[in-house]
Amino acid sequence: MKQISAILAAVLVLVSLAGCSGSNQVDVDATVQAGIQGTQAAQAGVQSQVNEAVAATLTAMPTPTLVPLEELSEEELAQSVEDSVDEAVSAADQASDASDSASSDGEITQDELEDLYYLYYLAIDEAEQALALAEDYYDLYAELFDLTISELEDIEAQLQYIEESAAEVLTVLDDISQTLAQGGEIAQQTIENLQELGQQAAQHAGEIQERLPGWRDIRTQETDSLINQALAVLPNDIAETRAGAVSQVKEYIQSMQNAVSDGRFSLDELNTISQLGANAAASLSHFGGGDLAGLSDAVNGLTRNFAGGQLPDINRGLGSLQNSLPSIR
C-alpha cells in the first residue's frame, strides 16, 4: 500500500538525518511509533474491506428450508438428501469453474474476487445443508439399514472434503483481497493454489456424482429385502379366542408405538414387530370377517411400513387400527 510505503520511507529518512546531525535532533522513537500506528490503521482499513465483502456475501446467500422430518417418508427424506447433495455438487463445480476462469489470465479482479467469495461460501453452505440432512437420515435409519448407511457415509466424506477445500480457498481469497487492497501484485503461487484447491473441490463433487446412483439402488434393494423378510415371519402364537386376538393386536400397537416414539428405526424393533404382527394377523384371519375384516391386512401393512421406514404411514395406520378396536367384542 502506497500509504504504508510512504510512512516507512519517511521513517528511514528521519533515522538517517538523526545519525548524521547532532545539532538537529529528531525524536526517532516518536516518529517510528507514529509510523507503526499509521501502518496498523492502514491494515485495519484493509481488513475492514475484507470483512465487509464477506458480510455482504453471507447476507446474499439463500436461507435453507427446514424439513419437517415427522412428515417425511423414507423415500421423501432420501430424495431431500439427494437433492441437497446435488446442489452441493453443483455449487462446488460452479466455484471450481469460476476459479479457473478468474485465474486463467494470471490476475484476479475485485469483481472476480467477490464472485469467488460468494461461490465458495455457497459451496460450503450447500455441503453443510446436505450433511445435516444426511445426519437426519442417520438418526432415523442407522440402526435399521446397513449397506445404505455405509454408502451414504462415503458420500458424506466427499462432502466434508468439499468443505475443507472450499475453506482453504477462502483463506487464499483473503490473501488476494489484502494484496489487491494494498495495490500489490498477486503472486503466481497464490494463483496456482487457487486453481489447485478449486480442482480438488470439483474432483470430490465428481466422486459424489458417481456414487449417488449406487446409493439409490442399494437403498431400494435393502428396503425391499427387509420388507420381504418381515412379512415372511411365521406366527408362533395364534389366539384361540376373539378376545385373545384383540389382545394381540393391542400388544402389537403398543410395540409399534414404543418403536417409533424414540425417533429412530432399528432392526431389533423390526424383528419384534414382525413376530407380533405375524401372530396378530394370523389370529385375526382365524376368526374370519365381520368387525375383524381387513384388520389382518392393516397389521401387515403397518409391518411393511416399519420395515420401509415410513413414519407418516405408520402414524396414520396406527390411528386407524386403534379406532377399529373399540367395536371389536
UniProtKB/TrEMBL annotation:
Q: Does the keyword Signal apply?
A: yes
Region described as Disordered: spans on this chain: 76-107
**PROSITE patterns named among the record's database cross-references:** PROKAR_LIPOPROTEIN
Task: Please provide the record's keywords in A-Z order.
Answer: Signal
Q: Mark out the compositionally biased spans (Low complexity).
A: 79-105
The signal peptide, as residue positions, is 1-18
Q: Does the keyword Signal apply?
A: yes
Domain of life of the organism encoding this protein: Bacteria
Q: What is this protein called?
A: Uncharacterized protein
Q: What is the scientific name of the source organism?
A: Pelolinea submarina
